[in-house]
Queue: 4 jobs
Job 1
Amino acid sequence: MAEAASQDLLLAAAFVSDAQYNRNIPFKTSPEAVRLYYLYNHWIMRTATYFFIFLNLSLAVFEEPAVYPLPFLVTSVVEVLCLVVFFGRLTHFAKVTLRNVFWKDTKNICIMVAILLSLTDLAIYGVLRMYDVRSIRWSRIVRPIFLINFAESRQIRRAFRSIRNTLPEITYVFLLFMFSLLMFSLMALKLFGERNLQTAEGLPYFKNYLEIVFDLYVLVTTANSPDVMMPAFDFSSWYALFFIAFVIVNTYIFMSLFLAVVYNNYKKHLKNEIRKLAYMKHCKMIEAFNILKEEEGAQFVVREAQWKQLVKLVAPDISNSHRELLLRISDDEQKGFIDKKSFVQLADLLNIQVITLKIRSHPLGQWMPGVYKSAVSRFLRSMVRHRGFVWTYDVIILINAIFIALDEETPYISYAEWVFLALYIIEILLKVYTYEPRAFFGKNQFWNWFDTLIIFAALTATILNTTLKSTTKYNSQQILDIVFILRVLRLIRIVDSIQRFRVIMNTLINIVPTMLTFGGLTLVVYCVFAIIGMELFHGKIQFFPANSNAPHSLECGNAALKDSLFARAKYCKNNFNNFASSFIVLMELTVVNQWHVFANGFANVTVQPAKLYFIAFHIVMVIIIVNIFVSFILEAFFVEYSLEKSEVETAIEQKIQELGMGVQEDELQDEHLLDNMESAEHDLEGEGGTKPQSKGLVFKIASKPSFPLFYLIFCARLSSVASL
Amino acid sequence: MAEAASQDLLLAAAFVSDAQYNRNIPFKTSPEAVRLYYLYNHWIMRTATYFFIFLNLSLAVFEEPAVYPLPFLVTSVVEVLCLVVFFGRLTHFAKVTLRNVFWKDTKNICIMVAILLSLTDLAIYGVLRMYDVRSIRWSRIVRPIFLINFAESRQIRRAFRSIRNTLPEITYVFLLFMFSLLMFSLMALKLFGERNLQTAEGLPYFKNYLEIVFDLYVLVTTANSPDVMMPAFDFSSWYALFFIAFVIVNTYIFMSLFLAVVYNNYKKHLKNEIRKLAYMKHCKMIEAFNILKEEEGAQFVVREAQWKQLVKLVAPDISNSHRELLLRISDDEQKGFIDKKSFVQLADLLNIQVITLKIRSHPLGQWMPGVYKSAVSRFLRSMVRHRGFVWTYDVIILINAIFIALDEETPYISYAEWVFLALYIIEILLKVYTYEPRAFFGKNQFWNWFDTLIIFAALTATILNTTLKSTTKYNSQQILDIVFILRVLRLIRIVDSIQRFRVIMNTLINIVPTMLTFGGLTLVVYCVFAIIGMELFHGKIQFFPANSNAPHSLECGNAALKDSLFARAKYCKNNFNNFASSFIVLMELTVVNQWHVFANGFANVTVQPAKLYFIAFHIVMVIIIVNIFVSFILEAFFVEYSLEKSEVETAIEQKIQELGMGVQEDELQDEHLLDNMESAEHDLEGEGGTKPQSKGLVFKIASKPSFPLFYLIFCARLSSVASL
């Protein structure tokens, strides 16, 4: 019986944690499946999956054409290993979930097909290789599928789904844009084609319709402005009007239109997704409730003891007091049980970060109370807390900045570096002495962590460099570079002293997690294009150091580039000869400028239709992904600007206040002041002894949702909408 | 007594029309002032003011350095004339408005100061000129003040006010951005400064801190990507990481942040403005009501007769039936009077475009009923109405496109041009024959107007060209160019046949009026920068035709440009030698690409700090104005996408339906079908005879607000908010 109850609890906990983390895995309810399910979601398993996904992707670095070449045998063994791990993970998932659900899910099918394709391609390539026949490793472009389709990378998949849903609308705007482009090209052909004008390179100007279309497409991206206009403009000033009209219509209006369409659709689809998610969450919580419910009077409820065990299972790392708080919120009237409505809220309650502030005295105060509470120590601590302390260090940072800008060679200045390092270390020590160390290195104290890491890294690197210098009389350039960068990064701290800047910086820091999703998206697009690019352009363009005397070293080792803009601009190192170079080229193409020089250069060394590769990349990356990125940043900022606490958050906060364990934000000058370097909004204060319930313990809602930001807020808001 | 009543009506009508057009002129209520007020708002007076504002601005074209030089005497007389007109307008305004209000308004003071400054400068310049001393006409940069500050250009002033309100927030982000730029520059100096690297032009690379800051600022605008990175990248691939980090932080994140801040603030301030406006409107309507009110039972009301006279005064050009409709809405229960609440709505009611569709038979049907109603005529008309007719012409347009792309010289093709022209003219005639001409050329029939104008312009130009050719054996190039453009523009019509495209095009057309505001904004910024630019760079760079043998003709007539990128790219015609050239250069700077080549080129021929001019232009134009433009397009599209009819519109529509004069949108196949080329949304149908009230008359709310778009919608929505 006890065993059965515990089984029920495990199953309910699985449902609740699914709801909490917005997972949508329809698992089987047998005890064995639930155990497998826990194993499947264990952080080690998840991290391992990610590790193998990235290992598989990074194989491109070691395979031909390689940055760091490894024998084919090694890379193929690693690839097979990765595929086996993926297959294992999939089998594991199949055992957890229902059979018919598993086979209906396209992402599972995708993974299986991708594994099969990769194996087949590997086998064919291996066999052909034995007979010394070179073939294309075409299966490499399916590798990003693993990153998209494993259940762990839900965010990226959602982004891809949004893109897919946005495509029809974008397509219409794109067709209209193409129509406008073709019309303007036709006009250009008629207006300039028969004038026998020449470009700055002496080539015929606007003679061929397709070339005009390409040139004007480049003008839309502004990459060849004003060069493309100059010959016509030199001929007659009035022709500038044609190009002005073109730029207004195509660059300004159509490109804004793309952003508007992408933004609008992305927002719409995201809302739908989140609505669906909230509904799914609700269903999961109801299932959990139904497992644990017991009859109490006219209604079904969950007993307090059950509930506590459930929370312990779902969130083992939250403190007892936090759990007690959640219980008080769920069981408002202390009846000893939780009703359905309060129970369903649990997933959202668990998601809200409540900072438990233990009002502890400083450890030194406990170990050496005599010394710590002496007049000198008190003076020291009040000095560190004083606003002047911050200002003094701001001045020091500014002086440091001037010293960095000055020449390195003067011995006084390199000694000064040691002085600054010492000053910064003293600052950190003083702060740790004054504030409670565990509070100083708290979870949300980004800047404290940042400072400490930077200073100690700089210290280590400087010592290492000095040691090397004194023993081998030789500066290691890599270490010196790192020292330089760390030294400059230290200056960022000054931003933290100005309230307005800190607000902007905090917003930027809050967006980081969501930007990682776009990092993933970009990675997928880059991988696919890099692999295609390497197949198309590998080895066609070579980079030779400045003093090389290889044939055609000035033309990037390819006679076809003679007199081309590509060779003249010395772009030879921008090539697709290995994975890393390809990424850098794609990065430059994302920035857009000069992409037509790349397109023309690579088309010259292969075939003219190769330009299509560059146009395709521009459409996918710049018109779609970058616009989504911009939409995302816009939306994230609007949410940050208009951040209101959700209903659930308000409920918690109310309860915290009711229990007398809240943070009084107005009593700032107190002895227990934790950190006066934080903004007013962050100012924490604990007045433990006045209220009976609080045992040196205060709670505070984390002022900004630190995880997927607006996603969470939406969830919390929509959960009430979706409560069916 | 009648005279007094009429005075009251005039005064009330002035208040109502102020409310209707969102004017905020606190005029005096004396009879004379009201008469002057009417004169002040007369369209001729307003148009004349605009004419003189633009005349004053366009003087820059004729003054030294001139595009079309005119003697100093002529331009100065014209300028004095303009200033006199402005002064007259201001005096007129002073007579209309209250004395203390007039002197408190900064815009009046601004205009007066601007007039004084202009006169002083003109006098000094004239006197110095007599003694052959050349001085600077510095007052020319105050001329755009007239465009901003005359009450007529309210939209532009509002945009400027929004910008001013957005500035503090932008400044903080900008400072943070500058801090990031300076930090990265410091790192770049430390990392690359001592490597003795060289740029592609053989210049030292990243040696001087200020130059690094400039180069990296240019990289933020992406204009020198990837050139600025290549030397470091060639030295070591790892250094690419520095530039990638730089681009992600500064180009992607900070530039999106600018857009976010501008968009957010612009939206916020616009909402505030509109809230204020709605309040002001309400006050004006209350004042009008208080003038006309009479006691009726327990409440004050306005009698129907008074109301009708008022509407006739305010909107003399609306039809009797439209006025009747408005009365029915205001006096819902036909009590013979209008209460306060309904009266206040009047300003909004007048703003809503109600299309009065008179169901008239075709004039030919009245003149020659026998012919027009014959079987042949009926067949012809049903043929034109058939979907196949549209398709046939779509095919013709496509064939036309192919003919245009083919070579002009073949005689058959130039004959074909006549065939196409004839076909298009036949189409228009057939349509006018089938549909009622006044409906065909209705106010909202944009495409019909477009077609007709294009075709007739093409016909005129082609005939003119042929005449010239046959009489003088010589093609006029200008006319030929216009013929080419018109010929291609005809092809746009094909867009109109595809539903999805038409929706996008209609949205674009709806944004045009609001884009004009940004045209005004841009004009002001361009004028100021063009005038400064001409003072700084006039004559420094000369353009010589290709075969010129002037000294330094390859270096744009300036030895300082030898070997510069500017001269090598043949940018000599991009100079500040006259007003028109300056505008084109500023346009190219707005597009951003290659702006650093301009900045370096112009700095070389003058002094290095001249680069600040280009940076200032970039900040003002690209970071602020273009972002506002993008925000505006985004907002406009979101409003278009989520367009719901406002409350007032719904009320009118309800009333139209109640009165049985609505348009039945489902009966499409009717004989009276007006225009089956319009979208389903636009399909108009009038079934006159079935309901007793409708005397061959139907109403329809214009499906999109055609004037300041989202502004109106906001107004209508907020008027209920602001009802105090």
Job 2
Amino acid sequence: MVSKKVYFLTSNPHKAKEVSDVLSQFSIEVVPLKGEKLEIQADSVEEVARFAAEEAKKRFKERPLLLEDSGLFVDALKGFPGPYSNYVYRTLGLEGLLKLMEGVEDRRARFVCAAALVKEDDKIVIEVGEVEGEIAYEPRGDKGFGFDPIFVPLGYEKTFAELGEEVKKRISHRARAFMKIAKHLSGE
Amino acid sequence: MVSKKVYFLTSNPHKAKEVSDVLSQFSIEVVPLKGEKLEIQADSVEEVARFAAEEAKKRFKERPLLLEDSGLFVDALKGFPGPYSNYVYRTLGLEGLLKLMEGVEDRRARFVCAAALVKEDDKIVIEVGEVEGEIAYEPRGDKGFGFDPIFVPLGYEKTFAELGEEVKKRISHRARAFMKIAKHLSGE
């Protein structure tokens, strides 16, 4: 099978690794493109990813160009921290989120990833992947990054940070979004 | 004294009223310009206001054009909620912020406002106003908006929501930023 090359705009090496793990299963080679994407304030990761893709396509000439935005949406907190998950992780941390969930019985949450593809013809495709789960009562595990140590995906008893890449590359929000993107790339 | 007219881009009627209260003291008339400003994700309100002003000056022809971005920065929470104060107010609310501060002795916080002025010659001026204070232990008062009911400015025992506009128009972050802006407008 001929391998295809795509560029992935990110400043997060964890994300580059995860996207590469997913796309390599489709014989797609991921070339990290170091740089900042422009992120707007919006209530959905789709909106953030779409705006970032529109802006990045003017600034970068590499094609196909990928980027993504993702977040943890906690039902009992009206979706918080949502698209601001990175900022909230850096300020409140896992402890802050767990404090907000103290005494809260409804632990349901979902990770959502919006992946954006800027195609050779400059058209933009957005695909969204989600994984449902629950917020744990304490951090567990040391794999992954961000809120992984307190997220238990539906059907599992371990957190993403305990399960690690073998499971994440099959069921994570990012895996699900980029598997859909892989179909667009193979079809090009 | 000749009154001068300025346009203020906002979707928040409370902010329009507060800015008008401040600038009317300088014989400056504020005309609200209804519309959304484009807000980026950034760790400071200055960055958010500057980007919004650069974008707004392309989209609106009215001059002088004002806009602002503001936020509540809590020391013990590494500045959270900062530039995302509106989102955090809509999701976690006052209760969520108070829950994060449970058992926290260091209550210090500051409201920061970055006011942007797009002048007749399209040059942009940014002025920042701050007010120091503390996070209260429970909400008090029904004036103002946002986090006003849990913010006690330094030198006072009441919250902004108890003190109301007579005090806010003299000492608030927004008042302080727009008093500096008034000097630019009078000097034009």
Job 3
Amino acid sequence: MRVFGIDPGSDRTGFGCVETDGTRHRLVRCGAITAPPHAPFPEKLVGIYRELRACLADCRPGIVVIESVFYAANARSALKLGHARGVAMLAAAEADLPIVEYTPAEIKRAIVGYGRAEKPQVQQMIKLLLGLSAVPTPHDAADALAAAICHIHARHPGGPLPPATISRAATSWRRYRPSVQATRAARRP
Amino acid sequence: MRVFGIDPGSDRTGFGCVETDGTRHRLVRCGAITAPPHAPFPEKLVGIYRELRACLADCRPGIVVIESVFYAANARSALKLGHARGVAMLAAAEADLPIVEYTPAEIKRAIVGYGRAEKPQVQQMIKLLLGLSAVPTPHDAADALAAAICHIHARHPGGPLPPATISRAATSWRRYRPSVQATRAARRP
């Protein structure tokens, strides 16, 4: 099974794909999508969407994991993060993949065993669990891998997370059809 | 020229397309994309994206106008709005259309002549300017039309908005190529 983690951000979006047989995990691919610093905002969104779609088509995971966010420094930064996160979610949904969300504390607990672990501890565990020679860089890529491994650990019987956490955000949008009310004007004389 | 306005929201996204010869404006189409109340969040985003893309392909506007947001009630609602707004922006950008943003005050000033006008005043002016028999419903559709007409008025010489406002957010993402750093793991023995 392959699990694809995403750590979204408007300036840099980390991604990481992990393959597992249930016991041993292997890194398939990880990296970050970085926007040119002065690119207009819509360009950044297009970049995130297109690159993620390409990565998902390439890695062919069975599920996508995104860190859930409950707060941000302020409404403005939350709004900006929301744009990037929405586009990342759309890329996964358009690829017909289920999406699972975990809180930052759940991810840390699943990787290190402690919900308030520091970033370097999480990164060292990622390196260890995937048998890498170094910590994955940039840190956004490591965060995306942590989300992916969190899901693998959570699925495991006796894993650190209750099963409820897993199914909570699972989606089935294939049935979805939003209602559109539309008015088409008669041409005026 | 046709101008397409969008009023994004995760539960309901208004849209409205206006055609103008510079003096007289005509409603092409307006409406709202409404998600089923209990649809999973990614489904809602897919609905907004797909319906907006279909509307844009149908209406064939020259430009897309989105109300800019600077604040929200709190970080959580800003994050949610950001998801919908990011997906709406992506739909316009993927259709190769320039995107222009105006603040709520700029839109009110351009329609009613007063930046703190009440919603019903704006809606009545929309009805008048487009020669409609009634105020467009739902109000999200009217808000989207207001954004579109704001841009038409702003472009007009001697219009209520300084020209700087118009070009500010214009984009040219065709040249954009984000840099992707990716690590592909060697298969472990």
Job 4
Amino acid sequence: MMRSKVLSLVARAGSNRMMSTATKLTTVEVNDKTGIATLTMNRPPVNGLNLELLQDLKSSIDEIESNKSRGLILTSSSSTIFSAGLDILEMYKPDKDRIRAFWTQLQDTWLALYGSSVPTAAAINGHSPAGGCLLATSCEYRVMVPNFTIGLNETQLGIVAPQWFMASFLSVLPQRIAERALNQGRMFTTEEALKVGLIDETANNKEEAIEKCVAFIGTFAKVNPLARSLTKQQFRAADLQQLQNGRKEDLEKFLFFVNQPAVQKGLGIYLEGLKKKAKKQ
Amino acid sequence: MMRSKVLSLVARAGSNRMMSTATKLTTVEVNDKTGIATLTMNRPPVNGLNLELLQDLKSSIDEIESNKSRGLILTSSSSTIFSAGLDILEMYKPDKDRIRAFWTQLQDTWLALYGSSVPTAAAINGHSPAGGCLLATSCEYRVMVPNFTIGLNETQLGIVAPQWFMASFLSVLPQRIAERALNQGRMFTTEEALKVGLIDETANNKEEAIEKCVAFIGTFAKVNPLARSLTKQQFRAADLQQLQNGRKEDLEKFLFFVNQPAVQKGLGIYLEGLKKKAKKQ
Amino acid sequence: MMRSKVLSLVARAGSNRMMSTATKLTTVEVNDKTGIATLTMNRPPVNGLNLELLQDLKSSIDEIESNKSRGLILTSSSSTIFSAGLDILEMYKPDKDRIRAFWTQLQDTWLALYGSSVPTAAAINGHSPAGGCLLATSCEYRVMVPNFTIGLNETQLGIVAPQWFMASFLSVLPQRIAERALNQGRMFTTEEALKVGLIDETANNKEEAIEKCVAFIGTFAKVNPLARSLTKQQFRAADLQQLQNGRKEDLEKFLFFVNQPAVQKGLGIYLEGLKKKAKKQ
């Protein structure tokens, strides 16, 4: 896979030197002092997870794994959207080959993030529905800015969140709350999310959210990194294994479902609504 | 299976027209306005779950599944008992064939209720021990009237709640609380049940309990029914599969246990106690 | 296995007659009135879990299982340490045969305690890191004296707590809290432990802690012991089975890990630190 990368040293007044790399749709900045990498999604306007953003996310996670970063903080360049989730255009009247590549990449990206050996935290600085919530709940810690919403709202769109979305959700929420929210396609406000444990802390803005993520990653300062990583992977082994063993089946299930006329019709109506909304603004 | 059914259109002053069907021991009323079915257990005096009530429950659940109801509310015609659980008379000095049919029917009824594609809620308008608690925790939501008790109290009777009773309980309660309560055979008051999450809300009376169940089912108004149903079934697949794969084993385990002389003796003493109690009243 | 045992009848002023037996490193006192056995670890200075203490614990658990005790309360003879966990000397530059026996014994002791048919409670009258926390969370109830700490801090020592430590932890804590604490190697104060549910109650001193454990075991007074024991074992079956099925693999995994030069070096540094600390005091 060919990707253009920009490697640069950024010196900012009053801040620590950062080593920064960028793919087309993500940037990675490693703080020189803390050794923590900030991975920023940058696909305007809503960080819709299309094939290319998912590829870039995976590459950036791999890079952070291999460059000895002390942690990974996932955030967004948008001021209102963390990620709007899977790009509907990938699923509506899909190209046969591309949709296979798209879903396979989503699997790969999740396996890399959920199973990452590095401490992970999400600075949720905007709305975070569906795939956005998946990314956030795949991290070990979540700090969220007020007045946004987060949740797996797939059923509202007529889609079924696959089993591993459910696993990420269940790693954070009690079963009773997780099942009901997923059935309802419920979006939680920042305050509601804090109350049920879907997020761990709130922060007034993105900067403060990142600071709190840095503080969380700092709790591992005295911990042996190898022992930590093996412990985390042992905790998540069953969830990761379940997808790894059933990747093909999971792909076929998705393709079958997404190609149902009723689902295509629903996605079409949804897209039409988005277009009208955009025209009005 | 032959069952007498009464189909009638009921028009009540000040209420919505209801389509109502009845088996011998259950009634189903579908509210014309909301499209929600109320399934009422009606086997006086305590809705003891015998073979026939379990059969009627299963038929009524199937009917609600197939008649396009928007939800199922399970309640009782008694003013003090939701369901007293499995009918001890089915287990004490049992007929060899009937007890097999009884347990197999219990399995079928649970599989239908726990795995129902329709949103389910229990309006718990009376005491709900053992099998009564199983029915309630197999629904997705529970509203309970004060001054009653609910719990899996099998160990108090010298019986072991099978693995799938445990699964229903665990779908609602944290493991630490669920295990301890099941070991103790603990009955929770309405207030205690609310505190630990065994129920979701309280209501002053049956009518209000049903209203709150209707409101819960209303949260699915904008949700795609197929996506909702597949999501729920995915959440419950492991529990349902476990019984489906082990039905014979589960039946034999129950038969072996219930036929132990010590268990039969215990049931006999319990029945004797019930008779004395009844005489005093 | 040869063990010297002392059997004696102890009559104390103002207390109930106790039947007491002792192994070299543990004592078992059965209260004549309550029928509850107190199992005291007595390997000064810190109840380090070496091969012999683990053997004696297993023998004492077996004894309590077979002498018809109504419950088991695990506590420590030390006034500041419940148990400091696995004896590092068993793992540092280990003898090839002894370390196999040591780990196999740890497995056996855990299987016996976690799977015990008798109601179990821990009176945690001192610090309880790592293996100490494993023993405490393998019981059904925990009462802890203030100003001590408890947790699985293996990652702080560069060690990975095996899957069954994790299972015991998860039987008590929600997944989100359990995973994070295990990754951090977090030690909880008595107050923090109460808040998250890692312990169930606090008590001002050991005597009061034991009283509260007695009260917990008393909640089973009206429960059929066989039904209770089968119910508990059904709850814990999956966890127990996982180790039983993978004992050899678990042993080899431990041996491989503990013999890593980096781990040996870490243990050496840790032991050196302990020696310096001891000299200063």
